[in-house]
Amino acid sequence: MSTVPESLQGKTIAVLGGTGPQGRGLARRFALAGLSVVLGSRTAEKGEAAASELVAGLGDAAGAVSGSDNAGAAAAGDVVLVVVPWDGHKELLESLREQLAGKVVVDCVNPLGFDKQGPYALEVEEGSATEQAQAVLPDSTVVGAFHNVSAVLLEDPEVASVDTDVLVLGDEREATDLVQDLAGTIPGVRGVYAGRRRNAHQVEALTANLIAINRRYKSHAGVRVTDV
């Protein structure tokens, strides 16, 4: 079990969309690091069931794990990850504006489309999912991160170390530092500051390239930044 950084001690990590592969995988890794985690879902029953399943697979070494609906998870979390499908992203955040006020919100959503030629980045009116989240949540501090991490690797108990960097985007240094610390609780992962929120589009869009790489090479590709 990793040592929890001082910046995260006593904080609860909520994962909205914690019953999907990416959300479950991130929640699993954070719990293994000793963090308290709340899984959110459309219903409290789904969130609680996912939390029970996660606890059963982790044993006693993990941090506390619980489940709720997305509103309950948003209220419970000090740092709240948004790991939901792009379709419905804006509406969900609008409904949780009050619960998320004053909190660091980490948007992990990739606005992607798929057709016969494969994945491609969608145009977003605000520029990116991260910028949309900040526009919808003026009383929250939104950071973009965890866009390019393989859900398969996060969920695989045989994978001890996830060999990738997490590109972290935001305008507030204290918040981006915190999210870099959060990324670093996952063995093998490093959080790297990658610019302000206005630069989130290309990081979200890069996921389309990684999916194409994975399909061609039958891999679970990630990103590494050199000379940092």
What does this 3D model show about the protein?
With 228 residues, the chain is an alpha/beta fold. Strand 9 (164-168), helix 8 and strand 10 form a beta-alpha-beta unit. The protein has a single domain, classed as Rossmann fold (3-Layer(aba) Sandwich), CATH 3.40.50.720. It has helices at residues 21-32, 44-58, 70-76, 89-95, 97-100, 129-136, 151-155, 173-183, 200-217; strands spanning 12-16, 36-41, 65-69, 79-82, 104-107, 112-115, 118-121, 141-144, 164-168, 189-193. The relative contact order is 0.15. The strands form three sheets. It has a six-stranded parallel beta sheet with strand order 3-2-1-4-5-8, with helices on both faces. Strands 6-7 form a two-stranded antiparallel sheet. The mean pLDDT is 96. It starts with 11 loop residues before the first strand and ends in an 11-residue tail after the last helix.
- Classify the helix fraction into a percent range: 25-40%
In terms of per-residue confidence, which ranges show pLDDT below 50 for 5 or more consecutive residues? none
Shape-level CATH architecture:
3-Layer(aba) Sandwich
CATH topology description:
Rossmann fold
Whole-number mean pLDDT: 96
Helix/strand structural class: alpha/beta
Largest beta sheet, briefly? 6 strands, parallel
Shape: globular
How many β-strands, per DSSP? 10
CATH class: Alpha Beta
Total helical elements? 9
